[in-house]
Amino acid sequence: MGQPHFIVFANEKGGTGKSTTAVHTAIALAASGHRVGALDLDQRQRTMARYLENRDATMRRLDKQLAYARYEVLEDQSELGLKAAVERLSAECDVIVIDTPGRDDPIARAAILKADTLVTPMNDSFVDLDLIGQVHPENFKVTKPSFYAELIWNSRTQRAKATGRSVDWVVLRNRLQHIDSHNLRRVGAALDELARRVGVRVIPGLGERVIYRELFPKGLTLLDLAELGEVGMGHITARQELREMIAGLAIPGQAEIDAPKAAAAG
Ligand SMILES: Nc1ncnc2c1ncn2[C@@H]1O[C@H](COP(=O)(O)OP(=O)(O)O)[C@@H](O)[C@H]1O
Ligand SMILES: [Mg+2]
Q1: Distance from the CA of 98 to the center of ligand 2, in angstroms?
Q2: Continuous segment of H or E residues that includes residue 86
Q3: 210: CA distance to ligand 1 center in Å?
């Protein structure tokens, strides 16, 4: 068996959607047939693990098997603890999704070094962008990459030296507004410029929708429409956004899985 593919969700800022997008990614990949492990490094908030616990409870209540990710919270917050947890999950899984806390943390840095795909979700705001790059106050042009971009850059170089493996760094624009706005376009333009300068890909994430705040108690995702009860157009559009987000992550093997489905959907 080969090495699993590691997807790490990291942003030192809290509330950018790491846990929400991590859970959706884990379940979407499980739904398309991957054996997925979910490791929650945020031992205080435990959002990803709590979400998946709620999902377990829903499966028991409905007596129904839904797409499933094996999960654990990193209780032993040491490099050895991380290594052990990764070994446990690697034995059973071909994709491992790691959620990290929204602060600088040595274990999060160690996890970033493991990433094959590093996902940094951010809201469309210059406040969130500031972590990655600074912009000129009048023309909004990028003046320089910020410390977080440097941290990732260094971590990338370190990983390439140690393992010869590269990392695909992806900035995921979460909570996208449906209405076009100056802000959206300006942040978008600054991000595109940064992308070129620091070697990051920018992909669209989930739209700003109340549903993402409501799914948590049942541990459901937008791929579980059958379990959601009333389904409206908004849900269908949101599910499409989710599928595009997963396609944008470009996890190896996923395109082949999606292609027959897309052909069948016609
Ligand atoms: N696309 C979205 N639309 C609406 N609310 C969202 C969306 N993504 C995340 N949220 C909400 O934003 C808050 C922070 O999200 P969370 O995933 O916990 O971020 P983080 O893990 O980065 O701290 C939560 O209340 C979550 O429900
Ligand atoms: Mg979180």
Answers
A1: 11
A2: helix 79-90
A3: 10
Strand partners for 172: 121, 203
**Which atom in ligand 1 lies closest to the alpha carbon of residue 207?**
1
Ligand 2 centroid vs 131 CA: distance in angstroms? 17
Question: Residue 266: is its pLDDT beyond 60?
Answer: no
CA-to-CA dists, residue 60 to 53, 212, 222, 251, angstroms: 11, 22, 19, 30
Are the CB atoms for 65 and 32 separated by under 8 Å?
no
pTM of the model: 0.94
Residue 120's closest CA among 45, 21, 207? 21
**Per-residue model confidence (pLDDT) at position 198:** 85
Which one of 45, 124, 212 would you pick to mutate in the ligand 1 pocket, going by the greatest count of ligand atoms within 8 A of its CB? Answer: 212
Task: Provide the pLDDT for residue 124.
Answer: 85
- Short-list 18, 20, 23, CA closest to 118: 18
Q: Are 78 and 128 in contact (CB under 8 A)?
A: no
Distance 19 CA to ligand 2 centre (A): 4
Domains of the chain (ranges plus CATH)? 5-265 (3.40.50.300)
For 46, left (φ over 0), alpha (ψ -120 to 50), or beta?
A: left
Rounded distance between C-alpha atoms, residue 8 and residue 11, angstroms: 10
Is the C-beta atom of 47 inside 6 A of ligand 1? yes
Per-residue pLDDT of 128-160, as tens digits, reads 888 888 888 888 888 888 888 888 889 889 999
Residues in the chain: 266
3-state secondary structure of 69: strand
